[in-house]
Specification:
The protein is α/β, with parallel strands linked by helices and 441 residues long. It is 38% helix and 20% strand. The strands form 4 sheets. A 7-stranded antiparallel beta sheet has the order 13-12-1-5-3-17-18. A 6-stranded parallel beta sheet has the order 7-6-11-10-9-8. A 4-stranded mixed beta sheet has the order 16-14-15-19. The protein starts with 9 loop residues before the first helix and ends with a helix.
Length: 441
């Protein structure tokens, strides 16, 4: 996990230099909010993720001496005064972060996170905020759809080998577990984040053996009754019969190819008639929420799923268009709310709070309001203080706790948001004071 302040875009540094030259780098306090203008196609809600890694990044934020020297010799920055680089050398994050807790369902035009700090600090961290939250929110949102499609059956994230690099694999596994996946195959994620690890055998294990029965026997002798045996290296049905004939009693078998509906039905029939009623069937092989929904609608006797590529790349919506925009400035004790008004990219001004209105335990709508407004009736605030004066307000929740909270918050959504083909639209409205500000801007 990178802690270097070089994890930013060049224009953040050129803007910081501009504020420094104007004497505003420390005297002006800025609030930037991160939000998504519109939901990706096929998504009716998002799951906020990536906050905790971003906060860890802020806690370690600094430029070391070698990095300062590299920046001084960068052509775009080489004409800047030495004092600017001394400012960078001393820079640490000393501001405030408020955010919705990880695992919270969110919608378009809602601030997922707000950074308030001296304008130089707040500008610098834009790139990292977007990189952490855009990617992990994309993955968590996709994983939540897959988990809902499985209707209570475990989903195991198997996508590391299809990820866009090992860092992506690491944080995708984290986001997928947050959103409800039961485990991951990626060992580093298991060790670093405490995610349960899951894996079966490789086709190469069977290919390297003299025959399937000896491959199965050797594997179960080594790993015992928790073994999950892979059946589709040659002929799935023949392998199932060989397994039954061997007298082995594995915890499960995995199907990775073919017509999973028909094959799972026949394998289940053979296992049951062979005395292996307790052996579970795990399916994998380019699965997503649509194929899982189709399988279960036909009552496929599949007990769990391994899903890789579609989760780890959020394959149908791989890029989340989250943005990080200036909404408020404090200069000389004067508060100035600001907003963009350009077509299709207009923003809502001022530091804001999201109020989620609940009725009988179900979310009915969200109200986006200025942060100083009073709470609407039957509403709970979503944005919470995470960092103050550059330090965490309190230790962040464990990932397993955020995972449980995520499941509970998804359960608050209306039931028509759970289906893979839902086109439901959740109501997000500005408060009356915010609406007036929008109308008069």
């Amino acid at each position: 996990m990178s802690a270097t302040a070089l994890a930013t875009d060049l224009y953040q540094l050129t803007m910081m230099a501009g504020y420094f030259a104007a004497g505003r780098h420390a005297s002006t306090t800025a609030s930037f909010e991160l939000f998504v203008r519109r939901l990706p196609a096929g998504r009716v809600f998002l799951i906020a993720a990536g906050l905790d890694p971003f906060v860890e990044f802020l806690q370690r934020l600094h430029f070391d001496d070698e990095e300062i020297e590299q920046l001084r010799h960068e052509a775009s920055l080489s004409a800047l005064p030495r004092a600017f680089f001394e400012y960078l050398r001393r820079l640490r994050f000393t501001g405030e972060v408020v955010a919705v807790p990880e695992g919270t369902p969110v919608f378009a035009n809602e601030p997922i996170l707000r950074v308030t700090a001296s304008i130089g600090e707040a500008q610098l961290v834009e790139t990292a905020a977007l990189a952490f939250l855009n990617f992990q929110t994309s993955i968590a949102s996709k994983a939540a759809r897959v988990v809902l499609a499985a209707d209570g059956r475990p989903i195991y994230e198997f996508g590391a080998r299809r990820a866009h690099g090992l860092d992506a694999a690491l944080f995708a596994a984290r986001a997928a577990y947050l959103a409800g996946c039961a485990g991951t195959s990626f060992v580093e994620a298991g060790v670093r984040f405490g995610i349960p690890l899951s894996g079966t055998m490789a086709h190469s294990w069977v290919l390297a053996a003299t025959d399937e029965s000896s491959a199965f026997r050797a594997y179960q002798e080594l790993y015992g009754p928790r073994s999950v045996l892979l059946l589709d290296t040659y002929d799935t049905i023949a392998a199932t019969r060989a397994l039954i004939g061997s007298g082995l009693k594995p915890a499960g078998v995995r199907l990775d190819s073919g017509d999973l509906l028909q094959v799972s039905r026949e394998v289940r029939r053979l296992l049951d008639t062979g005395g292996l009623e307790k052996t579970k069937i795990i399916a994998s092989g380019d699965l997503d929420e649509f194929s899982i929904t189709a399988l279960l609608s036909e009552r496929a006797p599949i007990d769990a799923f391994g899903v890789g590529t579609s989760i780890v790349t959020s394959i149908d919506a791989p890029a989340l268009g989250g943005v990080y925009k200036l909404v408020e400035l404090v200069e000389g004790g004067t508060v100035r709310r600001v907003r963009k008004t350009s077509p299709d990219k207009a923003t809502w001004p001022g530091a804001k709070q999201i109020w989620r209105v609940l009725h009988d335990g179900k979310a009915t709508r969200d109200i986006v309001a200025f942060e100083e407004e009073r709470a609407p009736a039957s509403a709970v605030p979503l944005l919470q203080s995470v960092v103050r004066n550059g330090r965490r307000v309190q230790p962040g929740p464990q990932l397993i706790e955020s995972r449980a909270a995520c499941a509970a918050k998804i359960a608050e959504l209306p039931a028509d948001f759970y289906t893979v083909d839902s086109t439901s639209v959740y109501e997000v409205v500005p408060s009356e004071p915010l609406r007036r500000a929008l109308d008069t801007a």
